[in-house]
Design goal:
It is built from 14 helices and 17 strands. The protein is α/β, with parallel strands linked by helices and 431 residues long. It binds zinc ion (ZN).
């Protein structure tokens, strides 16, 4: 199959009269469109972009959207997250995942990290999320959470030994899966004990997978880590042997200068979630400083009830605007830079060959409608995609070479049916 858009964003810049040949889920060749070949998929009036990568999300949280939007983090966690997540059985978890995946695909997200912690001391719920991803058609990185803080609901919690064994079993079960990867994810310095974090680091090391962990999201965490462990969160992870090239630190808002340098020196990466940080009033991650220190980064939405949108194009815009207002510099984080973070940057930290339209990469692609008003005037298309584009301009999406959104409609599942099921499940939910 060849895709023939009006133009495509390649590493060399925008190209016209281009054809992207796709075989076995990968881009086989990027060449000229002429002469036409039988089976060419013509995309007149469309520009083709690499698909976006959501480096951090909690899919079931989409079902909680709207419930605790004006609460602070502790209020949201204790009155919304904990009690309402207890209401979800396996079908509810799978429905929440499918709902979130569907919204993400419609917004041009082709890979989603689901940092998943409703484990019920097994991998069965995680498998239900994996099945939902396959049904909707999105590429999934399931960051299988390891959680043992006794203040959290029982269904989140496991012993370090059980959690490590189950993460290894899930990795083994999906090692040859073309569209699913399993990573290790001790929850955070406040949700996972030192033993649990070390168990996660050991799994990541021996199974050669990334290690996701929330760190220094709110100011309270630094105070608590200092009180309980006598040091700051990033130094604490380093002391546990959990800060290295496989580490993906989520948020990393409250770091001092030495911690920024330490993350760079250890080769750690960042999943940056600007909308979530703003929504919860957490603060502003010092992204340019982290990048200058050598920290690789991708963008995440975080859960659907702490954002409350699920679009990486949106996070590109927010990342740039938030840093501009912090630095009082309208030139900070230009469009090309944040676009890179939301595509190849995210793919790279997840160790995926995605995020660029070039031969050998995964065929995860997004087409946008050049006729949409939000992309006009067409003087600088990439800047418009980042700063102006409406989600309605996303017309088509391919994941692993399969068209999963066509002319704004999901091809594998009925969005109407999904929404009806979500409405039925949440009908009586009130704070
Ligand atoms: Zn999170």
């Amino acid at each position: 199959m060849r895709l023939v858009p009006e133009r495509a964003l390649t590493p060399e810049g925008w190209r016209r009269d281009v054809a992207i040949a796709v075989t076995d889920g990968r881009i086989a060749h990027v060449g000229v469109a002429q002469p036409r070949q039988p089976g060419d998929v013509m995309l007149p009036g469309r520009a083709l972009l690499p698909g976006t990568v959501n480096a951090h999300c909690h899919t079931f949280q989409s079902l909680l959207r709207g419930l605790g939007d004006d609460l602070d983090f502790a209020g949201w966690r204790d009155r919304v997250l904990y009690p309402f997540s207890e209401r979800l059985d396996r079908d509810g978890i799978a429905l929440g995942a499918a709902f979130a995946f569907a919204e993400m695909l419609r917004h041009g997200v082709t890979t989603c990290v689901d940092f998943f912690y409703l484990n019920d001391a097994s991998n069965d719920n995680a498998e239900a999320v994996i099945a939902a991803a396959r049904a909707v058609g999105i590429r999934l990185v399931l960051a299988r959470t390891m959680y043992d803080w006794e203040g959290a609901p029982k269904r989140y919690r496991e012993s370090p030994a059980d959690a490590a064994r189950r993460v290894r079993e899930l990795i083994a079960a999906h090692r040859h899966d073309a569209t699913v990867d399993i990573h290790a994810a001790p929850h955070s310095p406040h949700g996972a004990s030192a033993t649990m974090i070390q168990a996660g680091a050991d799994v990541a090391q021996t199974e050669r997978v990334p290690l996701h962990i929330h760190v220094a999201e709110g100011r309270y965490e630094g105070e608590r880590t200092r009180r309980e462990h006598g040091t700051t969160p990033v130094r604490y992870l380093d002391r546990l042997g959990a800060l290295g090239p496989r580490t993906i630190a989520v948020h990393a808002v409250w770091l001092d200068d030495e911690e920024i340098a330490l993350m760079g020196a250890r080769g750690a990466a960042l999943a940056y979630c600007p909308s979530s940080n703003m929504f919860l009033g957490d603060g502003v991650t010092r992204l340019p400083e982290l990048r200058r220190a050598g920290v690789r980064a991708g963008l995440g939405t975080d859960g659907g009830c702490t954002n409350n949108r699920l679009s990486i194009f949106e996070e590109m815009r927010m990342a740039s605007l938030l840093q501009r207002v912090r630095l009082l510099d309208g030139g900070a984080l230009p469009a090309t830079e944040v676009f890179g973070l939301g595509t190849e940057g995210g793919a790279a930290i997840l160790e995926l060959d995605a995020g660029r339209i070039e031969a050998g990469r995964l065929a995860d692609l997004v087409a946008v409608d050049l006729g949409h008003a939000s992309l006009h005037p067409p003087t600088n298309l990439l800047a418009n995609v980042v700063f102006a584009m409406s989600p309605q301009a996303v017309s088509d999406v391919w994941v692993h070479g399969e068209r999963v959104v066509e002319s704004g409609r999901l091809t594998r599942v009925s969005e109407g049916e999904l929404l009806a099921r979500v409405a039925a499940l949440t009908r009586d939910w009130r704070l």
